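Hey, resending since the last one bounced:
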Amino acid sequence: MRSAAEGPTAASPGTHTAPPALTVSMSAATPDPKTCRSCGRTIEWRKKWASNWDEVAYCSDACRKRKVTAQDRELEQRIRDLLAARASTSTICPSDVARSLHPDDEDAWRGLMEPVRRAARRLVAAGEVDITQGGSVVDPSTAKGPIRIRRHRP
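The C-alpha cells again:
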C-alpha cells in the first residue's frame, strides 16, 4: 500500500471521480452553480435544465426580461468610483450610490436601491467587490437587510 506522501492511488471500486467543474454527490454529479447575468444571484442546477445547462444565463423570467441595461452599467461604475474615492479599507452603502445620482429626489434614489444591490452582486461575481454585514463578508445571494460594499480583499 502506498503512503499519502507517495501520491494518489487508483480509485477503489465504488468511488466517484469527476471533472473539476462538477460537484460530486453519491447520487449523481451536478454542474457547479452559475451567477445570474442580471441580478447577480446564484443559479443552482435543476434537473429540468439538464439538457441546456450551458445556455442558462438568468435565474428567472423577470431577470431574462430585465437583462443588464445601460443604467445597470452606470451603477456598477458609480460603485467603483465611490470606492476609489475612499480609503482602501472603507465601505459604502448602496444608498450612497443611489443618492449620488439623485441627491435632491428621495423617491428617485429610493427607487434605485434594488438596482444598486443587483449591480453590487454582479461586481461580487466579477471578483471586484465584497458585500458585508456587520463587518463580515456575506453571500450576496442570501443577504437580507442592510449591506455594505467594499473593495475585494483576496
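The CA atoms of residues 91 and 150 lie 4 Å apart.

Sorry for the duplicate.
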